[in-house]
Design goal:
Keywords: Coiled coil. The protein is of the alpha+beta class. The protein contains four helices and four strands, in the order H-E-E-E-E-H-H-H. It has a four-stranded antiparallel sheet, with no helix packed on it. Strand 1 and strand 2 form a beta hairpin.
């Protein structure tokens, strides 16, 4: 008798599971003229408008979003690009802030670093200008040598001609390096001033937090 009850219970569980797996689902989708349609399937022309898969009691099993138009897709892509750019900018700002707080303890520290960096660039410019002066003097010497040979009616050696050409190229390159270093002077000064402004902002924020901080809490 006990065995029969267990058999009956197992059969009931099997039937219940079968009924659950065979649950009837319906589709709810927007029809024409703003109507809402509930049917056993979704016609192909309605799929782009999106639909819900629902149970008999109206509870939603799954929602399929409407297909976006080209304009909506472009708008979403633009929003994503803007969000990505904003996130990248925020990440750079956080990295900048962390670097400032790690390297400096005061505005004076930044000013000292600025002076040191500018002086280093000035030294490099001075060296380049000295090199440029030496190269130009070599050119003058070689030009004088070539002129003297020509006055004597002698041919200027090809090696001397090549040397002059090489020295003139070196003059051009050195002048470009000098101009680049001069631009660095301006850029470095501006960057350090930006660091000072940002560091001041961070200090002000920290001071505000201290003002609102209650040690008793």
């Amino acid at each position: 008798m006990a065995v029969s009850r267990w058999v009956l219970l197992g059969a009931m569980i099997f039937v219940g599971a079968s009924e659950l797996s065979a649950e009837t689902l319906y589709y709810r989708y927007p029809g024409v003229n703003g109507t809402v349609v509930i049917d056993s399937s979704v016609p192909p022309e309605a799929v782009p408008r999106g639909y819900d898969v629902i149970r008999v009691d109206g509870s939603v099993v799954k929602t399929v979003a409407p297909k976006l138009s080209d304009a909506e897709l472009k708008s979403r892509e633009l929003e994503q690009e803007v969000a990505a750019a904003r996130a990248e900018a925020d990440a750079k700002t956080r990295k900048w802030d962390q670097s400032l707080l790690l390297r400096y303890s005061s505005i004076q520290d930044i000013e000292v670093a600025k002076v040191r960096a500018i002086n280093d660039i000035k030294v490099r410019i001075s060296i380049l200008k000295s090199n440029l002066s030496t190269i130009k003097q070599q050119i003058l010497n070689n030009q004088s040598e070539a002129a003297e040979l020509e006055r004597r009616g002698q041919d200027v050696p090809s090696a001397l001609v090549d040397t002059l050409a090489s020295l003139r190229r070196e003059v051009t390159t050195t002048e470009q390096h000098i101009n680049s270093r001069v631009q660095d002077l301006s850029d470095v000064a501006k960057n350090y001033e930006r660091d000072k402004d940002r560091f001041s902002h961070l200090q002000a924020q920290a001071q505000k937090r201290l003002q609102y901080y209650d040690p008793a809490e």
